[in-house]
Recover the amino acids of this structure.
C-alpha cells in the first residue's frame, strides 16, 4: 500500500468549457495559468479543446502528487455530463468563468 503525505508539488485537475458552455473538457496540469493560456492560444490546433474553443475555466482541484491528480482526472472523465455539472455547480454554483483567478 502506498501512503501519500500532503505533497510539496502543485498539480491541478480542471474542467474548461467554451463560451456557450456546451462542451466540457477535463485535464491535468502542473501549471494551471500556463495551461489556460495554451488553451486560449490553441497551442495544439487539432486538439479537442481547440476544435471546440474550450478555454474558460469552470472547475479545478489542487493536488500535491501527480498520481492522485491523474487518478482524479480519470474519475471525472468517467462521469456523465450531468454528474460533471453537479460537481462543477457544487464548487461554482453560478458557472462563472474562473480564469481571472490564475
Amino acid at each position: 500500500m502506498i501512503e501519500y503525505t500532503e505533497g510539496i508539488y502543485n498539480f491541478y485537475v480542471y474542467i474548461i468549457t467554451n463560451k456557450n458552455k456546451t462542451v466540457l473538457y477535463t485535464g491535468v496540469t502542473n501549471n494551471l495559468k500556463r495551461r489556460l493560456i495554451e488553451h486560449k492560444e490553441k497551442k495544439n490546433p487539432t486538439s479537442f479543446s481547440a476544435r471546440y474553443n474550450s478555454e474558460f475555466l469552470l472547475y479545478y482541484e489542487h493536488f500535491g502528487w501527480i498520481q492522485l491528480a491523474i487518478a482524479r482526472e480519470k474519475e471525472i472523465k468517467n462521469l456523465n455530463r450531468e454528474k460533471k455539472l453537479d460537481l462543477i455547480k457544487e464548487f461554482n454554483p453560478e458557472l462563472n468563468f474562473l480564469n481571472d483567478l490564475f
Observations:
- The mean pLDDT is 94.
- The radius of gyration is 14 Å.
- The first strand starts at residue 11 and ends at 17.
